[in-house]
Amino acid sequence: MRLRPYGDEDWPALLALWVESWSATRPGIDFSARAPWLKNLLERTTAEGGTIILAEDREGLLGFVLFDAKRAWLEQITLAPRAFGSGAAQALLGEAKAACPEKLGLDVNADNVRALAFYRNEGFVKTGEGKNPLSGLPIVVMEWTQGAPHR
Predict the structure, then answer these.
(1) 142 closest CA partner among 118, 101, 53
(2) What is the pTM for the complete model shown?
C-alpha cells in the first residue's frame, strides 16, 4: 500500500470508491445521485486549503481521506470494502492527525457501529450530537486530542 496526494485525474476512481463504500454501508440511499455534492465538498474544501490523500495498492484505490487542517476537521474518510481491516484507514487517519497534531474533529452517523468503534480505537471521544444535513440521520460529533487518554 502507498499513500499519495489526490490529483484531478483521480476523480472517477475516487467517486466510484465512495459510491461503492457508502452503498455497502447505507444500501437504501442512492449515492450515485450525490456525486455533485461530493464533488462540491472536495472542491470547496481543497480551495479553502484542505487536503485529499489517497491510499492505493496494485489493484487500485483502497481509500481516501479529506481533511481541513486549518479547522482541524476530518470531512471524509472512505475505504473500499476490500480494504476493511487492512490498515489503510489507520494510515489515512494518521495523515490527518499528523497535519492536525493538537486535535482533530469529525462527525459520524450515530448508527455506523463499525466507524464509531474505529474512531474510539483511534482515540476519539464523543463531544456532541446532531443531524446529518443530507440524510437527516442522527450523528455523533467526536474529537481526538493529542495525548488524551483513550476512554
Answers:
(1) 118
(2) 0.91
